[in-house]
Amino acid sequence: MYKIFWQNWDLSIVEFKKIQQKHFVERINEIRNLTYIKNNKEVKYSNKYIFNAIILIKSIINHTNVDYNPLFVHPKKSLKEEQDLKDLYKDLKKRIEPRTSYLEPEEIKILLETLREKPKYFQGYIICLIMATTGMRPDSVLNLRIKDFDIRSKTINTYDFKRKMYYKCNLTKRVEEEVSKISVNRNQDEFLLVSEYTKGLTKLPNMPKYLNRIIDDLFNKDRFNNNRNVLYTLRHSFATNLVKGKKGPDGKYIIEPVSIFKIQKLLNHANIETTIKHYLKFAPDFAIDSIAAFENYIL
User: Residue 62 sits in which domain range?
Assistant: First the structure.
């Protein structure tokens, strides 16, 4: 990260006292247009990666014994320079904030029914069904082989590309039924999701483009930026709905809330802090109900 963004910078060999804040603003804007090759395609660096690169260089400078730090307040800087950098930070942070939207169970049902209606969308239906009932990441779904579905233990052997490890997901009855329809008489080593070109020998390279288009049509008419629903929202919805639970008209839970520690395991998060940060905020009434029950018991 340092080498790509800072060591290759023309001003990387210049003394700090000779670098102005505007030079960093220009470099960061330049970085936002840099590209790299991924899957034989030229793509831009993510906003999160760029933001981390800025935090890295700020930390390096902060721990360097220098009188003048071009990334912090200093009399030599103009107010405009300060504001330009603040605006840049603000824009990057806004773009990397976690999505606040999620789909309610009724909305997920609509999505699944819409996909299931047309045979040409059947693989998309399978993808959404697996994500909605396991919280699996999209690239993990694409990597699934038929042998990963263990009927006896009711689990799915899943590879987490982010943590570079395998973990177990629960295999639900509906997923088992639907997967059985497309895996009958097929080799166990074949990938579950195929195209007319791969025929199961290699995995489907990308998610079907129609999925996000259908999600847009159903749920994004008045949503913008991080508030929009995308395919990845199904992972977010899985966890959020389990944390919140769902009450029926009589006030009783028809979907029992799941503890945040179990959600951590289901999503294969490395740290509970990640799970708490993203999902506990959606279930404040769950905490209130639990505290009230505790209070009633001890008084």
Answer: 2-96
